[in-house]
Amino acid sequence: MQVQPGYVDHKTLDSVDLLIMWDGQYPTPAQNALAPVPYTDLSWRQYLTRAATIKHNFVPVLDVFLMVLLKSSFLSAADVQAFSEATMQMWRYFQIYDWERTWASPQVCSSSTHTSGSAHGSVANGSHTCPDC
Q1: Cβ atoms of 83 and 65 closer than 8 Å
Q2: Under 8 Å between Cβ of 102 and 52
Q3: Which SS3 state, helix, strand or coil, does residue 86 take?
Q4: Helix H or strand E encompassing 65
Q5: pTM for the whole structure
Q6: How far apart are the C-alpha atoms of 15 and 38, rounded to whole Å?
Q7: Could you state, in order of their start, the residue ranges of all structural domains in the chain?
Q8: What's the farthest any 2 CA atoms get from each other in the chain?
Q9: Which of 14, 85, 93, 104 has its CB surrounded by the most CB atoms within 10 Å?
Q10: Residues with Cβ < 8 Å from 108, sequence gap 6 or more?
């Protein structure tokens, strides 16, 4: 049910959920979320985000994150712990490094395709096709 501004019908309204969307002012959600961050800080994040940094600091965390997500069996306590730690490490990573440059990286594309292929057995010999790789 969509609620019009100023309209509240308590009989049919089950819940109100906040869904933050980016608008026309910012082309990406990262820019909207980072709008209060000074431009100099954002530029510094881009400068720090290098291929080696992505490969050594982000890709291993992403691999753990994706492997737990792609498990088709019951998640163990260790899986939940690994997922929690990977999520926190990703949050910490993006406090220092650039969101867009990281996700656009060929290392991330290769890693995520390899990880999902390994989990599902669908990618053989690196024969994936990433649009940006």
Answers
A1: yes
A2: no
A3: helix
A4: helix 59-70
A5: 0.65
A6: 36
A7: 37-120
A8: 57
A9: 93
A10: 54, 58, 59, 62, 102
